[in-house]
Amino acid sequence: MKHTSYLFLALLFSCSITKYQKKGEVNPVSFHEKLSFTTVKNLILLPVEIDGQPKNMLFDTGAQLNLIQRNSPQGKTSNVGGASNQKAKLGSEITESIKIGEVEFNQTAAWNGDLKGLKEQISDFGGIIGQSIINKANWKIDYPNQQIELASKGFSVEGFQKIEIIREEGIPYVMLNIEGKEYKAVIDLGSSSNGINIPTNHPLADQLLNQYEFKENEREIYTIGGSQNITEQIGIIPSVKVGEIVFNEVAVDIRKSSQLRVGMYFFKDKVLIIDHITRGYFISE
C-alpha cells in the first residue's frame, strides 16, 4: 500500500516554495510520452493516476505546487490565495505517486483540500498539476489538436519563436506590449480567460474600457476556493505583442483578480513548448 506523507509548507518565503517545487523524482529518468487531453472551460484536463487510482487533473502553470483533491485538508494547514483573490484553507503533503501515461512523478509536494464546485463538475477529479510536476519535464502542448507531450529531453524548436520568461517563485511571467506600453503578466494556463485577464484595479483596465467597446458578462470560473460565479467586462482589442510575435483580435476580460494574466486560450491557435532545460517558452510561428 502506498502512503502519503503530510508536511508543513512555509508558504511565506519564496525560497521555501522553490525548495518544495524541486522535491521529488521522475521514473523512468529518460522518457517521452504523448497523450490526448480534453478541455473544460478552455482548461487542459489530463488523465492521470494518483497513488494508483485513475483521476483527472487540470494543468496549471500558475499553480506553485500541485493541489490534490482530498475530502478534507490533511497535514498542517495554511490559507492559500488564488487568482480571484479568494482564499482557501488547504493542507500540505508529499504525494507518493502521480502517473501521467507511463511517466511517474514520485514524492512531489502538494497542497490538498476539498475543492467543492470543481469535484462535482469534473468526473474523478484529482486536483491540479502545478509546478511540482511541470518543472520536472519538458512539455509540448498542441492545443488545436488536443495533444500533449512530456519528455526528459528538449523538443525541437525549429519553426518556433522564443518568448522571454521572467520567473518569480517558480511561476512564469511574460512582458505584454499593449498600446505601446509593456506590462508584466503571469502565464497561467489554469486560467479560464478567453485571452487576457485584467484586474479591475489595474491601470490598463480603465484605459481599455474607455478606448474600446466592452459588455457585461456573467459566467462561472474555477478558482482555488472552488467554482465561483463572476461578473466581468469582455471585449476585443486589436493586437498584443509578445516579443516579436503579434497576436491579433485578442479577447480581454476585466474582473476582480489578483494580477494580469494570460490563459491557455490566448495560445489556442498555437503549439506551445515549455522547455525546462533552457527555462524558455517557445510558440509555433
Which labels suit this protein?
8-stranded mixed β-sheet, Cathepsin D, subunit A, domain 1, 24 strands, 285 residues, mainly beta, 6-stranded mixed beta barrel, 3 helices, Peptidase_aspartic_dom_sf, aspartic-type endopeptidase activity, 8% helix, single chain
Q: Can you tell me the CATH superfamily of the largest domain?
A: Acid Proteases
**Low-confidence segments:** 5-15
Distance between the termini: 47 Å
Specify the biggest β-sheet: 8 strands, mixed
Average pLDDT, all residues: 90
CATH topological fold name of the largest domain: Cathepsin D, subunit A, domain 1
Going across the major beta sheet, what is the strand order?
15-16-17-22-18-21-20-19
Compute the number of strand runs.
24
Query: What is the count of structural domains?
Result: 2
Instruction: Write down the CATH class of the largest domain.
Output: Mainly Beta
> What shape does the CA trace take?
globular
Evaluate the radius of gyration: 18 Å
The SSE order reads EHEEEEEEEEEEHEEEEEEEHEEEEEE
Number of helical elements: 3
CATH architecture of the largest domain: Beta Barrel
Counting helices, strands and paired strands, the structural category is mainly beta
Helical content (DSSP H or I, runs of 4+): under 10%
